[in-house]
Amino acid sequence: MPRPKTSIPAAAVRVGSSRINGRGIYAAAPLPGRRKLGEITGCLVQLPGARKAIADSPKIYFVELDDQWALDCSDGGPFKHLNHSCEPNCYLRINRQRLEVYALRPIAAGAELTVDYGVTPHAGGMVCRCGAKGCRRIL
Question: Does the residue 90 lie in any domain?
Answer without folding.
Answer: yes
